[in-house]
Write a structure and sequence with these properties.
4 strands, 20% strand, alpha+beta, 70 residues
């Protein structure tokens, strides 16, 4: 299996600010404060983290076919 992609671009749904971020491989990022407008992003219903909801690449556990819930 290929190594997971660790950089994802988060796009704020409120202001459109985009930010490249390195994703952790051992934890989900449940909250993120937008650097553009300060809104606190949290996963959409059914997603495990902000990368899966607002990123260009899903989080590493999802890329590997796993789930990072609990």
């Amino acid at each position: 299996m290929a190594d997971p992609i660790l950089i994802s671009r988060l796009r704020c749904p409120e202001c459109g600010h985009e930010e490249d971020m390195e994703m952790p491989t051992n934890a989900c990022l449940f909250f993120h404060n937008c650097a553009g407008c300060g809104v606190r992003l949290q996963p959409l219903q059914g997603d495990c983290c902000v990368f899966c909801s607002y990123g260009t690449v899903p989080c590493p556990p999802i890329q590997e076919g796993d789930c990072c819930h609990g």
